[in-house]
Amino acid sequence: MKFLLKLSDISSIKRIEFREDINGLRAVAVLAVVFYHADFELFKGGWLGVDIFFVISGYLISNIIVSELNEGTFTFKYFYLRRVRRVLPALFSTLLVTIPFAYFLLTPKAMEEYTNSLTASVFFYANYNFMKLDFYIAESTKVMPLLHTWSLAIEEQYYILFPLFTFLVYKYFKKYLIFLIGLLTIVSIYINTVTQSVDKFYRLEYRIWELLLGVLVMVLSNNLKIKHLEKIGLPLMLFPLFYYDKYSVNDIEPKLLVVLGISLIIFSNTNNSYLTKILSFKLIAIIGLSSYSIYLLHQPLFAFFRLAYAGRLLIFGDTEKYFLIILTLIFGYFFYIFIEKRNLKSLSYKFLFFSISFIILFSLISLFDKGYSSRYAGTNSQLEKYYLPEQRSGIEESQCIETFSNFEYFCNTSYKPENENLIILGDSHLQTISYELIKNDRFVNYNIFTSTNQGCPFFLSLENNKSRASCGNSKKTNEIESIILSNETTIIFGGRFPWYFNGDPFETNLGSIGDSMEPGLEDLLVGLEENITFLIKNSKKLILIYPIPELGYFPLEPYLYKFYNLNDEITYDISYWKEYSEEVNNVFNELSDTKLIKINPEKIFCENIFLNRCTSSFNGTFYYYDDDHLTRDGARLVVDEILKINIR
Predict the structure, then answer these.
(1) Which of 614, 152, 107 has the alpha carbon at shortest distance from 376?
(2) Fewest CB within a 10 Å sphere: which of 29, 190, 247, 395?
(3) Hey, is 425 helix, strand or coil?
């Protein structure tokens, strides 16, 4: 017990001097994040650099607070004043710099998302702002200029809460501080293991264990000396950066490894170790000192360059990535010298007041002007309807009625027992198609049921389907079986299967938007065949819709930016799509049954309008809302093919 009390003693903790190794570790962390966002495969786990930052922050901030409490010099006023000087000038400068680029490069929809994140960044709730954003229909994370501010929000929320917690515990339960910190750390790690919700990536309670681990390291390293643990910590920290990828972003294992590694380094490393000598190299030291500014600037720089290239349909390649990395490091250094260092000495409150006022005003105008849509008064008036969210949506949930039972996965807008049933089954690619079918007079005598969940085309369990396993649900299966058994039923089925299969984004000579995912590969093809076989067996007719050709680019931006005239169609050779969709289409081609009817949108968008060239528009009519979803005009062309079928 005495040994534990000695380990937990905080009364002898003094302010640590500047540690060159920690400064170098900051450089490692920020470079990992920058290389990850530059899409270098080698640094596929570079997102863990943020976790390294969290431990370092927990270590340094707790040392400041506890050492000052020991000296009797701690005050909330001066603590928060130092935080304001350290954080706000560089942050607000970055936000202000992004505004003109956003104004000229962002579409109205993207501008609305940007201004929401702008305000959230100022008031440090960016993590919750991005958490509530539906990334399936929002702009790609690669072109969100302020996405990275979620981590700053977590740190600032910690800076607000932790000093108060430490002050109260120090005053009344001083000798139990380390035990309470340990308990909170364990609880935070535990709740990470009991949920798979994507929300935990952004929420403080799921991240605070990393910051608190820095506190534990700070206290233990003051009371216990163990040499050479950094030799274990270094490979533990580096290995996850190169081994794990973005599909592990919500897993606890890579975070535990990298956090344990950085903790062992901070705990055991000394000023005269070889690691310190390496981390003290001048370039690494400069990057470490500039790491905060580099982190602030890298995401906007990459996002705006990607937007500029995408709008011109140019390929964003390795040359551009290397150029931007160098530019980020240079700008980050100058930001550190002229903004960070200067404001640590003399803070301009007028600048802070002006920044907050201007950002709020800019955001309010964006709100009332629908993302500054007036910027594109001429061109936007013709494109405006295609930017509306309903262009890619189906029937609103408010229109669904209770049928048989209170369905969770199926929507029905009207039901008559004497009518035949029609089920539209798929993912978001069938949403607009379902909308156009439901409003068509020819189907007024059908009970139409829709289940078009985003990213989830399946309703069977399909245990062998790794990438779409979360879409399988027994309740969903029970619901469709209750519809099938009620009377003869026609089913329309489709989805974005080539993307689920490949994992890699669709790419042509015009580029790619880079929306990769974990591939389904052969497991998906087997599951897909099982799914279709089940549907054929349990339906009057199955209308199978082949995958809708994707674009690899956003179709409206080149016209919005006036790089193309509205009547100039952007097309690509059909061979790109045939190669990308080959494996899935082969499964569809081999299926044969008298109850099976096939419709291939490839013929509509890649053969009928232009021979062997896929197009997103024709004569100012746009068939695509984004790189892969149809507009209602596009969906209507598919519905026209369905109308040619004698369903009865």
Answers:
(1) 107
(2) 190
(3) strand
With a cut of 70, say whether residue 5 has pLDDT above it: no
Q: Return the DSSP state at 516.
A: -
Q: Residues, the chain, total?
A: 648
- Which pLDDT score, from 0 to 100, does residue 471 have? 67
Q: Which of 385, 395, 407 is nearest to 434 (CA)?
A: 395
Q: What is the pLDDT of residues 526-562, one digit of tens each?
A: 878 888 888 888 888 999 999 999 999 999 888 888 8
462's tokens: 């399909």
What are φ and ψ of residue 562, in 5° steps? 65, 30
The model carries a pTM of: 0.89
DSSP 8-state symbol, 531? H
Residue pair 469/462 in contact by the 8 Å Cβ criterion: yes
Pairwise CA distance, residues 37 & 150, whole Å: 15
Surface-to-core class of residue 55, CB atoms within 10 Å of its CB (0-12 exposed, 13-18 middle, 19+ buried): buried
Q: What is the pLDDT of residue 617?
A: 93
Query: Residue 399 and residue 414: Cα distance in Å, rounded?
Result: 9
Q: Can you spell out the DSSP letters for 349-369? A: HHHHHHHHHHHHHHHHHHHHT
Strand ranges in 219-338 using DSSP code E only, listed in sequence order: none
Domains and CATH numbers, the chain: 27-371 (no CATH), 393-553+575-600 (3.40.50)
Q: Tell me: the pLDDT tens digits for 13-68?
A: 899 989 999 999 999 999 999 999 998 989 999 999 999 999 999 999 999 999 99
Bridge partner residues of 544 (DSSP): 493, 598
286 falls in which pLDDT band (50, 70, 90)? very high
In angstroms, rounded to a whole number, what is the distance separating the alpha carbons of residues 38 and 303? 10
Residues 28, 49: contact at Cβ < 8 Å?
yes
Euclidean distance between CA atoms 81 and 270, whole angstroms:
31
Residue 103 contacts by C-beta under 8 Å, 6 or more apart in sequence?
Answer: 111, 372, 375
- The C-alpha atoms of residue 583 and residue 521 are separated, in whole angstroms, by 9
CA 510 to chain centre: 24
